[in-house]
Specification:
Strand order of the largest sheet: 10-9-8-11-12-13
Order of helices and strands: EEEEEHEHEHHEHEHEHEEHEHHHH
CATH architecture of the largest domain: 3-Layer(aba) Sandwich
Structural class: alpha/beta
Number of domains: 2
CATH superfamily of the largest domain: NAD(P)-binding Rossmann-like Domain
Bound molecules: nicotinamide-adenine-dinucleotide
Number of strands: 13
Strand content: 15-25%
Number of helices: 12
CATH topology of the largest domain: Rossmann fold
Shape: globular
Length: 355
């Protein structure tokens, strides 16, 4: 047991080796397990969202915090940000969305846990939490971003993320076809939500031939508005297109789909596009250009980074557009070294971490 600002923590699991800190506690108000993993502060405070989720066991939640914290270190380093990697997990007692007093208790408990780390971890929105939740957490700690716009927060990250995906997509097109313009290129956007929907609009403006897909039939209206083909998700993944842009859930490219893909490029906003990192080798062998997801979707992180450092619009735009240059770099390095863009992206992050 150790103490963080008076909060008792349990012994970290063996999986935490190589991490700077793992705080695991039982919320004083809610009784829920709360875990905060700080993977690295080598480049700056460990920033990563607060995930409010119902896990089968507390152990699963802790493992999730550890896995996601490490990914945040890589994402921040590859994007050239002065940030480390961390993640918070609040284990919800049931699968139903916590509401009312329970929700408030969970968030205040989490805020106390964040405060106990004295700024080494900065929290933000993630799956299961939103800007209003960040305002509740802010009652207990100042180390929180993603606050509502009226509280000085950076607001919805999706427009910034979509712009970053477009920059990455341009770099992929340049690499594959010698021209970054999406004009006349068939792009299949799978998941027409906050990011995918905006990306589709940007691509339509750029003259792309669009195909859209979503499990939500209400998104058909956007396809009709943009003159895009509408595909069911299963067929969309296998569409014969220049660019497949996964913008829904992770794991869409797995052992069953990788050999059947008919796209020339994979570049989208979704986290963990590859069900297994080794699939990057299969994509390379098939001559499919893969833009590593954690570089492509860094716009969301850049958005809250701007809030943390009070960056102006121009600085944010520069950082987001630089995503294209970073993608171009890892694609070139992968070709030169006979590796994969994913391996080169990880090497770039490690290099920036000084390892
Ligand atoms: P969202 O919930 O607004 O949109 C996701 C869309 O995908 C929804 O319309 C949903 O109906 C659809 N969908 C779900 N399952 C599907 C399936 N199997 N096939 C097709 N469509 C499906 O989410 P978002 O904010 O647009 O984020 C999309 C992805 O990008 C997520 O993986 C997210 O983690 C990642 N991401 C988002 C941001 C951001 O700024 N919002 C930043 C970084 C990464």
């Amino acid at each position: 047991m150790s103490a963080h600002g008076g909060i008792q923590t349990v012994a970290p699991p063996a999986a935490a080796a190589g991490y700077e800190d793992l705080l695991v506690l039982e919320g004083a108000r809610s009784g829920a397990t709360i875990a905060i993993a700080v993977h690295s502060t080598a480049l700056g405070p460990a920033l990563g969202g607060a995930r409010l989720w119902h896990y089968e066991s507390a152990g699963e939640g802790i493992e999730d915090a550890l896995r996601l914290a490490r990914a945040m270190t890589y994402k921040a380093a590859a994007a050239g940000l002065r940030l480390g990697g961390g993640k918070g997990v609040i284990c919800a007692p049931t699968a139903a969305r916590p509401e009312g007093e329970l929700r408030r208790a969970l968030l205040l408990d989490f805020g106390d846990a964040v405060a106990s780390l004295d700024g080494r971890y900065v929290t933000a929105e993630d799956v299961g939490t939103d800007a209003a939740d960040m305002a509740v957490i802010a009652e207990r700690t100042s180390h929180v971003v993603g606050l509502p716009g009226e509280r000085g927060g950076s607001g919805d990250p999706s427009p910034v993320t979509a712009r970053g995906v477009l920059a990455a997509l341009g770099a992929c097109l340049e690499h594959r076809f010698g021209d970054p313009s999406p004009a006349g290129r068939r792009v299949c956007v799978v998941g027409a939500g906050h990011v995918g929907g905006r990306l589709a609009r940007l691509l339509a403006d750029g003259g792309a031939e669009l195909a859209l897909s979503d499990v939500d039939p209400a998104r058909r209206a956007l396809a009709a508005e943009l003159g895009a083909d509408w595909l069911e998700p299963g067929e969309a993944i296998l569409d014969d297109c220049d660019v497949l842009a996964p913008c829904a859930l992770g794991g869409v490219i797995d052992a069953a789909t990788v050999g059947r893909l008919r796209c020339r490029i994979v570049c989208g906003a979704a986290n963990n596009v590859l069900a297994d990192e080794r699939l990057a080798v299969d994509l390379a062998r098939r001559g499919i250009v893969y833009a590593p997801d954690f570089i492509v979707n860094a716009g969301g992180l850049i958005n809250v980074y701007a809030e943390l450092h009070q960056l102006d619009h121009e600085a944010v735009t520069n950082l987001v557009d630089h995503i294209g240059a970073t993608v171009g770099l890892v694609l070139e390095e992968a070709d030169r070294n006979g590796t994969t863009p994913l391996a080169e992206a990880q090497a770039l992050a490690l290099q920036r971490l000084g390892r």
